[in-house]
Amino acid sequence: MIWHSPHLFASGDWVVYRKQKYSASPGPRAKSVAAAPLGETYAYVVDKYWVVKKRLEDDRVLLITRTGKEHTVSLDDPNLRPARWWERWLYKDRFRETEQLVEHRINGPAQVS
Description:
The protein is of the alpha+beta class. Helices cover 19% and strands 38% of the residues. β4 and β5 form a beta hairpin.
């Protein structure tokens, strides 16, 4: 069941994706850190601030990262949600940088006169 209203997640929308990661040294943004059974690595989640590049017809969205990578995610994925107002304010530069990638890929590079 898709919990988001159907009008959400149009091209250009700012979203947060909670990504599961594993490593020997979680970074400062790591949340829900848990040691592996043998204690050599950690499992944790990191909030990723991505932009919707395109809404697909099969209840999925194509997301773009700040580095230009693309991920296809189902609308009913519990790790996907709209950015909250304070995240939009706090991470606006990160979102805007990613938005420029979306615009560049859709419209092509800016013309210089």
